[in-house]
Specification:
The protein has two domains: 3-110, 2-Layer Sandwich (Enolase-like, domain 1); 122-343, TIM Barrel (Alpha-Beta Barrel), CATH 3.20.20. Strand 6 (155-159), helix 5 (165-178) and strand 7 form a beta-alpha-beta unit. It has ten helices and 13 strands. The chain has a seven-stranded parallel beta sheet with strand order 5-6-7-8-9-10-11. A three-stranded antiparallel beta sheet has the order 1-2-3. The chain has helices at 60-70, 80-90, 96-110, 138-150, 165-178, 197-204, 221-230, 247-257, 272-284, 298-308; strands spanning 3-19, 22-35, 41-46, 127-128, 131-133, 155-159, 183-187, 211-213, 235-237, 261-264, 288-291, 334-337, 340-343. It has 354 residues and is α/β, with parallel strands linked by helices. 33% of the residues lie in helices and 21% in strands. It starts with a strand and ends in an 11-residue tail after the last strand.
Length: 354
């Protein structure tokens, strides 16, 4: 039988992390420690973001308290399918970050409780990733761009929609001048208005943009279908996928909107099993995709990276470069080197949160 202990933890950003929906100085996460009868412990991470995740973040502690009691009746899973069956039984689809965390903890436990969620050969993992440039004033964004280029990234993703649009255009123009080969992605987090989104995209397209994530707010299917069909930059859907749990509804959405890309976040989109289905459906419909972390600590990031590494045929740049955002992150062997996510030879993990 299983037992569950919950450890809340506050991650402190090194700067004010800013999207089009506001600033974050820190964020609260909960580490789930799932133990078997012999005391072996698998760890998962509940990491929602207030106003971005579908959960009521304030209500998560109560849900986790209930989960403590309910998990006691569950056997130790022996297969990945058994893990997903337990999580499906215990956690509502409306709580994607808890689903992700429980899947992660049970998979960790099942695989020896050594942070080997999906892979045992971590030193063989080498995943191409984008360098993320956060919103801020012009000087801050220019400083980040320079640092990412100096660090060897060949794909840079910029958060847009916070500054004056003309300033953002000039930033992107100057970035493109630095290199014709650089892959530039944009993420609007729904910041553009439906009445002028296509005009803004047309202006941005002059700089050979790879894709733009979620240019308008989700839940506007007619407007999004129009944007996907007429945009001069390929559209990547992100927040649009939140809360679509039924397979038929997922198929209908992909066939209606016809996006060029999906951006898949296990914490936001219902865990690994849910993301697996999104991947299968995307590939059936000829839609490309990549995996992105959701500002988890290094514990959650490790699990997501191992999951992404299961798809070596996917050559897209993943969004896994967020491990250096916090003053008090969990010590880990994760290394970002010349635009690749890798692991150091040492497998030492820290447990500062305890």
């Amino acid at each position: 039988m299983l037992s569950l202990e919950v450890k809340p933890y506050l991650l402190d950003f090194k700067f004010s992390a800013r999207t089009s929906r506001g600033k974050m100085e820190n964020r609260k996460v909960w580490f789930l420690e799932v133990r078997d009868e012999y005391g072996k412990c698998g760890i998962g991470e509940v990491a929602p973001i207030h106003r971005l995740s579908p959960e009521d973040v304030e209500g998560i502690p109560d849900i986790l308290e209930r989960l403590k009691k309910e998990i006691e009746n569950c056997p130790v899973p022996q297969t990945e399918d058994e893990v997903y069956a337990i999580v499906s039984k215990l956690v509502s689809p409306n709580c994607p970050s808890i689903r992700f965390a429980l899947e992660m903890a049970l998979l960790d436990l099942m695989n020896g409780a050594d942070k080997l969620i999906f892979r045992k050969d971590l030193q063989r993992i080498k995943i191409p990733i984008n360098g993320l440039v956060w919103m801020g004033d012009e000087a801050f964004m220019k400083e980040q761009i320079k640092q990412k280029l100096d660090d060897g990234f060949s794909c840079i993703k910029l958060k847009v929609g916070s500054l004056d649009f003309d300033i953002e255009l000039e930033l992107i123009k100057s970035l493109r001048k630095m290199s014709d080969d650089l892959i530039i992605r944009l993420d609007a987090n729904g910041a553009f208005q439906t009445e002028d989104v296509l005009f803004k995209i047309r202006d941005l397209s002059k700089y050979h943009i790879h894709s733009i994530e979620q240019p308008i707010m989700p839940m506007q299917p007619e407007a999004m279908e129009l944007v996907c069909s007429r945009s001069e930059i390929p559209i990547a859907l992100d927040e649009e996928l939140i809360g679509i749990e039924n397979s038929r509804d997922r198929v209908d959405m992909l066939q209606e909107l016809k996006p060029q890309y999906l951006v898949l976040k296990p914490t936001l989109h219902g865990g690994f099993n849910s993301v697996k289905e999104w991947i299968d459906l995307a590939e059936m419909h000829g839609i490309s995709w990549w995996i992105t972390s959701y500002l988890e600590s290094n514990l959650g990031l490790n699990a997501i990276a191992q999951f992404a590494s299961l798809y070596p045929e996917n050559k897209e740049f993943h969004g896994l470069g967020t491990g250096g955002l916090y003053h008090n992150n969990i010590t880990s062997p994760i290394v970002i080197d010349q635009g690749f996510f890798t692991y150091a030879k040492s497998s030492v993990w820290g447990y500062e949160y305890t």
